[in-house]
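Chain A, query sequence.
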Amino acid sequence: MNEKRINRISEEVKKVVSELIQNEIKDPRISGMPSVNKVSVTKDLGFAKIYISVLGSEEDKESTIEGLQSAKGFVRKEIGNRINLRHVPEPIFMLDESIEQALYMSKLIEEVNRDSKEDSDAKKE
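Chain A, predicted structure.
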């Protein structure tokens, strides 16, 4: 299947799932401000890997993924209702920790910059 079409379908699935998480899924396990970072649909439209980022503790992350897994049927049905596709992909929810890793890396970079500045200031004196 055409790569452009797969990308467009992935973006549409991302919009639908984001809207569902924010407005329609009322599972109490879903907490910690979840957001959809990326959706990757397979070429045969069999599966859609949905990468979810959750701010909060490890317990919040695990419970949010569990809540989304239990709502998988509802999510698939809504994707089928909102996007005109012959084959509706099966959603697979995966935890995405790239935002937290980026925050950690930027913190490390700031520490290195601060240390190098302190070292250069000490050498000038």
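Strands lie at 34-41, 47-54, 90-95. Residues 98-124 form the longest helix (27 residues).
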